[in-house]
Amino acid sequence: MAKRDDILREDARFRILRLLSDNPEMSQREIASSVGISHGATNYLLKALVEKGHVKLANFQAAADKRRYAYVLTPRGLAAKAELTRKFLVRKRAEFDALQSEIEALEADMGDAKGDKV
Known about the structure:
With 118 residues, the protein is mainly alpha-helical. It has one domain: Arc Repressor Mutant, subunit A, CATH 1.10.10. Helices cover 69% and strands 8% of the residues. Helix 1 packs across helix 3 and helix 1 crosses helix 4. The relative contact order is 0.12.
């Protein structure tokens, strides 16, 4: 089960870094909503990304509320995003291939049962 949790966390980090590369001014609530995780999990992951040096905090100058921050990807964060993107693609392609094989098997079963292909 730990491996599944690790994959889910890695996917969340990937999605957060991807969002922040395009929208550094997103609030934690907006990030949580977009990624589909809780606000607390978002806060935890953002703190970890800051501690690892993948993201730095900067004041968001255009905000009326000067307490708002922008989450800016660092060069280390861009490299991490590239690696997470590669891993994400490998996993999703494997899932796609497995799903495609399952669909083909089901279509073959349906064809055998009906005498024709769906």
